[in-house]
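Record filed here:
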Amino acid sequence: MGKKINKRILAVVAVSFLGFCPQVLAQDPMEMAAKDPKLFIDTAAKQLKWEEPAEPVKVVGPIYFVGTTGLSVWLITTSEGPLLLNTGMPDSGPMIEASIRKLGFKPEDIKLMLTCHAHIDHVGGHAYLKKLSGAQVVMLADEVELIQSGGKTDFHYGNVPEFAFEPVKVDRVIRDGESVKLGDVTMTAHKTAGHTRGSTTWVTNVTDAGKSYGVVFPDGTSVNPGYRVAKDPSYSDIGDDFRRTFQTLETLKPDIWLTPHTETLSLEARRVHTAKEGAEAWVDPEGYQRWVASRRQKFEAQVKKEMGAADTPKED
């Protein structure tokens, strides 16, 4: 009996990491995960297949998926060499390397490395791939300390060893709204804080078969288990940061949106359609607006929950 309950809890905790609606349980899965961050990260990695290899695939123009089954890593080729956005978990470096080679590109040629935010599941492979390529690591100013500390300065997970990763030196620091240009590709950074203090949404425009596409890599919306955004906040401005993030994301009107976790992408379904439709298989502007709206609703629900709990007397 106990083992069955634990398995159910593990599955729900993993799903809640991505902000999906969990099944109704007697105990709030967010609270369960908050009590045991090690269980949280281990479960998410296993249940959502963060460290399982996946087939690479072309998305649109110069953008290729080279991530794992559960985590998105994006290779973007340019006239002056490729750049890489995100690197997955610490053990994912060799998998990403293999995927890049399978596409016919050389990981040693990577010139720049970007990220959505400096948590172990998105920058864990940075150190490996930087050593392999010598690429410059580019980071929003608010996120520099976090990646250079190996995760130890994180406002929520800083004291959890399972969330630590090999520190990486940042070579170039940018500010909100600045662009990074490599060859014929320009990536513009928007600070979308909340999930971390320097969560970054990247925006670019690419061409495929003569057609132009606006592409957004949105980030910063997830309220992780244990975060507090209203009452006794996890950091002083976290609530305001989340609200600014939603305002920023709502102003963007992408043709294609590519999230850090593959569950949101419906990756396998799109992979099938890509074989027939090409880049058009990834076009979903309405889906983006619905997604942003749903993320804002989840945040506001968290605010109400915290404030309601604070105002409700506890029963003996």
